[in-house]
Every structure is written in structure tokens, then in C-alpha cells.
Amino acid sequence: MELNYSINGNSIIVPEVVVQRLPHYLNILSILQVEKTKIVSSEQLGYLAQITPAQIRKDLSYFGKFGKQGKGYSVNILVKRLREILGVNLQWEVCLIGVGRLGRALLSYPGFAPEGFNIIAAFDSDLEQIGQQIGKIKIKNIVEIEEFLQSSSIQIAIVAVPASVTKDILNQLYHSGIKAVLNYAPFTPLDHKDMIIRNIDPVASLQSLTYHLKENN
């Protein structure tokens, strides 16, 4: 998958793998910023990110010129630019579907709001959950979701429902105008090419870890 990015009115094509590496760079740079580091080289950033310096320079080059050869990158400037490129300098309203154990943990997670992601609504089909208050969020009935979303400015949804109902929920979100989904259920193929879905599967991550352990034993 490739994405378009505009620089000074000119549209360029950015590979999806590059976009997925940018938050990793930003997280590292944000730590360096807290540590009062002023300048970082591509070699230092590559070491911390476990990516080659050449790859980092290539990734950043899609979005313009950063730093000067032999002098490294200004940490503050690079953090600012990456936040702008990723859109996390803006505020995003988010809804959550599925308020089981995982959903409740996500509602309580303090790391979303500081990065501009504000969960303003949560939905579930469990009658025992509906109407309960978690923090500032009152859980709504899933049957209300289309009407609610169509009258809101929410573009992002977090889905934490059983795999058996994921596809139906994703279709419902698509027809309600949701453009992007963070999906905690196993991967579900959809025909909606204009909906961006990020799948988070802890089991798949563990499987990749056991591969490396097996190879090293």
C-alpha cells in the first residue's frame, strides 16, 4: 500500500512501510527531547531504532530536507515536523466499540489524550454494560452507533470485539463514515479500500518472538 503526501503543493507517493516507521522514530526522538538532547545523527537514531542510518535518511527524505550532512538533525525540529506529518499535532475524536476487559483497559489508558486522541464515546451490545459510566464515558447501546457517528466528527474507531462479529462491526463503521480503525481482533478482510485498518494481534507478535527463540536455541 502506498500513500500520497503533499509538499509545497506537490504530491508524492510514500510507501506504507515508511509511514509505519515514523511513529517509532517520533517515540525515540521524544525521549531524546526529554533528555535535553539537541542534535542526533542518523547513526545514533539508527542504533536506537535498530534500523540502518541509510534507511532513516531515505525515509525522512520523502518529506523534505532535514538537517545538514555531517551535522545531524535538530531533535526539536524533527519532533515538530514528524508530529505535523503524522497529524498528531491535531486533536482527534475517537470512539470505542467493545467494552469488555480490553475495552475497559483502553478507556482507562492515560496515553491517548496527550497524543491528541480523545475517546468521546463507547459502545457495546451487552445489556449489563450499557449505561455504565467509565470515567467521563457512558457506555451506549451498539444499535445507536450509526445515528451517533453520522452526527459527530469522529473519524477513528477502536474495535475490541470478538472475532466472530468484527466484520459486521467494521462494515457498520464504514457505512457510518469512519475512515480509520484500530482493530484488536484477528485480521478481517474487507472490500472497503478507502478504510484504513491497523490490526493489533498480540498472539501474532508472540509467534514472531518464538520464531527467533527457536532459531537461537
Question: What does this molecule look like?
Answer:
This protein is of the alpha/beta class. 41% of the residues lie in helices and 23% in strands. The chain is built from 8 helices and 11 strands. Strand 5 (92-97), helix 5 (101-108) and strand 6 (117-124) form a beta-alpha-beta unit. Helix 1 packs across helix 4 (75-86). The protein is globular and about 60 Å long. It starts with a strand and ends with a helix.
Entry summary:
The chain has 217 residues and is α/β, with parallel strands linked by helices.
CATH architecture heading of the largest domain: 3-Layer(aba) Sandwich
Structural class determined from secondary elements: alpha/beta
Number of strands: 11
Q: Identify the quaternary structure here.
A: single chain
Report helical residue fraction: 40-55%
CATH topology name of the largest domain, in short, is: Rossmann fold
Can you tell me the CATH superfamily of the largest domain? NAD(P)-binding Rossmann-like Domain
Low-confidence segments: none
Mean pLDDT: 90
Beta-strand portion reads: 15-25%
Distance between termini? 35 Å
Major beta-sheet overview: 7 strands, mixed
Shape: globular
Which key phrases capture this entry?
217 residues; alpha/beta; Rossmann fold; two-stranded antiparallel ribbon; 23% strand
Describe the protein's topology.
Layout: E1 2-7, E2 10-15, H1 16-34, E3 39-40, H2 42-49, H3 53-61, E4 73-74, H4 75-86, E5 92-97, H5 101-108, E6 117-124, E7 133-134, E8 137-141, H6 145-150, E9 156-159, H7 163-175, E10 180-183, E11 196-199, H8 202-216
Parallel strand pairs: 5-6, 5-9, 6-8, 9-10, 10-11
Antiparallel strand pairs: 1-2, 3-4, 7-8
